[in-house]
């Protein structure tokens, strides 16, 4: 068993203490805290890939921001699906093919929202990078709700 000092140095103690505090402070949300953190991690990785791809396409490949926003959304979709399927929701019930279909439907709508909002913000004069950040932030809430309640509704850890 690791000593307190080893746990503290590794950050494990503080992470566990933080999670315990959140579970105690918000008991109705306790079952969703771990899943929500994993969802946020998956989304964060997806956002970095999305924004990195967007920036590379605009600055290096000289693709118009509207088209670059579209391409970056599709590329990050693959990464987000894999992370949510295998890390966030760890689904053991239901058919994978059904989950993929549901995920595809949810993310088809999410991509349309993301692209539409990105283009809207760009055309309203927001810098393409910040337009994409805003779009991702807005669509994130829709994504969590739909993945939790529709795509992986019968999942559990």
Write the layout of secondary structure elements.
Blueprint: H1 4-10, H2 12-25, H3 30-59, H4 65-88, H5 96-123, H6 128-151
Protein architecture, described:
- It is a single chain.
- This protein is an all-alpha fold.
- The protein is globular, with a radius of gyration of 18 Å.
- Helix 3 packs antiparallel against helix 4, helix 3 runs antiparallel to helix 6 and helix 4 runs antiparallel to helix 5.
- The protein starts with a helix and ends in a 6-residue tail after the last helix.
- The mean pLDDT is 85.
- The chain has one domain.
What is the N-to-C order of secondary-structure elements (H for helix, E for strand)?
HHHHHH
- What is the beta-strand fraction? under 5%
Low-confidence stretches: none
Roughly what percent helix? Answer: over 70%
Q: What sort of overall outline do the alpha carbons produce when their principal axes are compared?
A: globular
Count of spatially separate domains: 1
Question: What can be said about this structure in brief?
Answer:
The protein is mostly helical and 157 residues long. The protein is built from 6 helices and no strands.
């Amino acid at each position: 068993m690791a000593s307190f000092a080893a746990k503290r140095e590794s950050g494990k103690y503080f992470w566990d203490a933080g999670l315990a505090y959140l579970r105690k402070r918000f008991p109705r949300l306790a079952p969703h805290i771990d899943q929500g953190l994993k969802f946020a991690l998956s989304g964060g990785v997806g956002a970095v890939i999305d924004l990195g791809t967007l920036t590379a396409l605009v600055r290096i490949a000289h693709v118009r921001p509207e088209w670059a926003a579209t391409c970056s959304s599709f590329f990050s979709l693959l990464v987000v699906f894999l992370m949510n399927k295998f890390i966030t929701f760890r689904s053991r019930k239901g058919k994978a093919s059904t989950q993929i279909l549901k995920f595809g439907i949810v993310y088809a709508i999410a991509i349309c929202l993301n692209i539409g909002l990105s283009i809207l913000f760009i055309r309203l004069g927001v810098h393409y990078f910040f337009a994409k950040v805003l779009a991702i932030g807005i669509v994130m809430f829709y994504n969590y709700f739909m993945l939790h309640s529709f795509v992986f509704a019968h999942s559990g850890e």
